[in-house]
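Quick start: read one record
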Amino acid sequence: MQTRYTACGPAVVASDPPSRVRRTLVIRPPGFSLSRLGGYLRRLIQYSDLLLTMSRHRIIVRYKQSVLGLAWALIQPLSLMAIYTIIFSVVTRVPTSGTPYPIFVYSALLPWTFFSSAVSNSTTSLVSHTQLITKVYFPREILPITYNISAGFDFLIAAFLLAGMMIYQKIRLSIYVWWLVPILLVSLLFAIVCSLFLSMLQVWFRDVGLAIPLAMQLWMFASPVVYPLDAVPFHLRKFYVLNPMVGVVENFRRVLVQGRAPDLGALWAAAVVSFLLLPCIYLLFKERESSMADVV
């Protein structure tokens, strides 16, 4: 039996024999309810092949006909590392607990660049695929998620350079390195939260895409990328760690290159914010999904 997808409601052709009546999927404006979350996730899993195919396409197109190719994944963090090293280790000194400043800042730029790239590129993912959204049905969240996967690919490439720098400086891994798994998971979840929310807003307010570059620059300096968390005044730290990227960036650097135990307060704050926001933002995204094709 074939299945026909329509946005208008059940439509059974009278001339069809009863044995050939087609099942119809009716797409209605969804409600904001936690009870619908399981259904949305099952539908997303059904389209997993499309998610993987589009993610692969995103990576290929990103470097297609590029002279430097995959080297572009290294250029941005390396350039920022060079600039910040000159400013914060030559012009002025930043305490790094004995870690060479290039590795200190590069290890923080890795998770930050992943987050910034994922959010910046996914913000325009819906409005840049107008023809696809208005003609074909598929879970719309696939589009911003593919940009997160593409940013993750760049992260892996840049991570090889960090590994080489650590080997050159004879920095050994500590027993705390296993904390990288929850840290990277929190980073991915928070990036998806921001990607879904901002790409949805961009459909109705095109100012969002214009504001993202400036917002990312300000957000970076509001996170411990070029300076350690210890440099933040203690009486402000309880508000400062509400920024989930504080827990991600600081702890990624701590457990990987400094061999220190993670700051569990900052990490738990990032995890709680990410896990609480993800279902809420996802349901809001799905609630607005039915009207995107009319606005985009």
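Confidence is low (pLDDT under 50) at residues 1-16.
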